[in-house]
Protein: Citrate synthase
Amino acid sequence: ETGMFTYDPGYTSTGSCSSAVTYIDGDAGILLHRGYAIEDLAMHCDFTEVAYLLLRGELPTAPKKTEFEKIITYHTMVHEQLHKFYDGFRRDAHPMAVMCGVVGALSAFYHDSIDITDPIQRMIAQHRLVAKMPTIAAWAYKYSQGQPFMYPRNNLTYAENFLHMMFATPCEEYKVSPVLARAMDRILILHADHEQNASTSTVRLAGSSGANPFACIAAGIASLWGPAHGGANEAVLKMLTEIGSPDRVDDFVKKAKDKNDPFRLMGFGHRVYKNYDPRAKIMAATCHEVLDELGIVDEPLLEIAMRLEKIALEDEYFIEKKLYPNVDFYSGIIFRAIGIPTSMFTCLFALARTVGWISQWKEMIEDPDQKIGRPRQLYNGATKRDFLPMDKR
Ligand code: SDX
Structure:
């Protein structure tokens, strides 16, 4: 008696949804946002342009872009009382724990943007979340360093502002080099949205109950944190450091192929891509650009990563399993070169992905046929049985 009830296929699964935001062809390695190829967006746009596209469905004209940038810029400050939330954390708290807590708390401050039935309030919530994430993330880093929080500057771009809040101090400006600002823009674009991944599905499911947008994004941050998802960029750096030198790569590739060994190559493989993740190609090129700009000629981790990629792409196990580098494989090397600590890597992923999460949330909330998500299950527990009083057990 397996206890298995027959599964009624009539129930509509809420595991899938229709969406017009992002399209992925995993076999061909194609990624489109609102029909535009990620390669074109990453090479020719800045992050606010892509944020506008994801949220509003079209690339902005110059005046529209300027107007949108102004709106976002004037939402980058956070309520002054939010400072106090940081003081409640230990200095060594993981920045993702801080981001989860602070973002969830935003709904306690911004009562004028939590009524999801009001289109104006929904719009304000979208702008606030996109605008405040860099500030919240950078302050998590400053808090961990025991440094004063840096306020956003209205004369800086989205990417420049984040780097400024991360690395400037009241004693010294942080000069953002155009190449680094460009690289940061591109990295944010590459992480902006990715169809129905685990964290986006979490945001949709949370939002389907009518929960406020700040709470939904906090749920997405929690899901992204896992090493199988957004936490992989941090795990890649730990793996490359553990490998330690290019001549040890073969041993680790062997470990990754051993069914009895739980070790997996971080930054490799993908639920959807069975071809090269198009974002990984752009990330690899950006990695070389940033290292060149910073005059870093012998980055050992890059050497190990390139050797690991070469071996894996020629190895029949990885070819047969269709395992390729994904978006997380090179990003950590760039972040480290810029001076961003490993613990902040997933926070960067979260701040970039916020616009994707909130675009998908908006699409769902504005769907007149939207219902609360209610996944079903294949029950494999006990069939009905008679109750046993304590003395009979
Ligand atoms: C992200 O969904 C998204 O879109 C996510 C994301 C986004 O933008 O939101 O793209 C971001 O999360 C990228 C993925 C980051 N995670 C990692 O890099 C962690 C390492 N990768 C793996 O843990 C893994 O590849 C997953 C979790 C990403 C996917 O795992 P699956 O679903 O098991 O992959 P699969 O079914 O395609 O695996 C096929 C086979 C399996 O072996 P068999 O069961 O068939 O024997 O390949 C094996 C896997 O065990 N395999 C790996 C491997 N990844 C899969 N073996 C060694 N090393 C790996 N990295």
